[in-house]
Amino acid sequence: MSWTFFPAQDGCCSAVPAAGGARVRTPACVGGRYRITGILGGGGCGVVWTAADLRLDGRPVLVKARRYDREPGLFAHRADRHRASQIALLRAQMRFEAMTMNWLRMRGEARTPIVLDLVTDEAPDLRGPHDDGTSGPWTWDDPLVAAEPYLILQPIIGEDLLTYAARVRGGPSWPREALRLGRELAGILQRLHRPLDAQGHYLIYQDLKPGNVIIGDDRKLHLIDFGAITLVAPQAGGGTCSCLTDDGLGILGVPGAILGNPGLGTPGYKPPEMATPEGRRSLDARVDVYGWGATMWALLTGREPPAVPEHGPLDLQALKSCACAPRLLHAVHRACQPQRDERPASMTEVLAMLKEGTAP
Known about the structure:
This protein is of the alpha+beta class. The chain has eight helices and 15 strands. Helix 4 (174-192) runs antiparallel to helix 8 (347-353) and helix 6 crosses helix 7 (326-335). The model is unreliable at 1-22 (pLDDT under 50).
């Protein structure tokens, strides 16, 4: 999505998608330190701004915030103070995102964004002005408005994976490079899925797609946008639970907060099981196996995958015309199966399929 940026006016910036749509109110400065300079992009739940760190000589940073304009009617009426609990849960998800990135960094995972800060400031989307159609525009004067978390991230210099692949696809080195990209991306996900504790809790990324992978100047891959990251717990009788709440765990200190965003993903890159409530309650590593397969399918074919399940499964026959290592094509074919029991059970299995000398 392309964005048009409007300079600050009366202490506040405004931004709208270039193609039109709901306005995203943007603060001029966050935490008294990070001056917003532009908009990098936005999705269904969040927005990312570029900013300058005023305490460190204008060092460039990224600021990620929750979008409330996509929450229909949220805080749009004077009687909506009861939605404070809903706001608290949404904010807890942002804090969980920051926490997981820090967990991964402490475990030595260098292919994730560096969290520089987590600051609290006013949420312009909640402040207003609102218009409920009864008494004209009004602003919400409530302490809750001033308690919005903002995630401050170190920028990653590079280009997204789809743009990179479009440049090099078809060249003489593409078959070898495609295999390298597939292995490296699978390795990042394998490390992300490692157990966090003795109980076997682990993380799933959920929103893997070329736009969420940056290839840096050093040609190494980096995952960005951990807004869909979700905690998964193995169950004693088999299976998993992917709708864990903070009750009893005390990770966030917000009772009822779900530790992640189960089911959040991008159509075409998320598997069919994410489309049902039952499926969203029992997600596992095979969600990311499918995301890896769909991402590689997009890189190899040069096409965006159709939404699943609305437009049926991926066209796996399209892989036959791709000039790549047979073991890579075989791994992608297996990973993109609509039925999760027919996919590799883990990224470890995917990596084994990509090893030198592995027969398809």
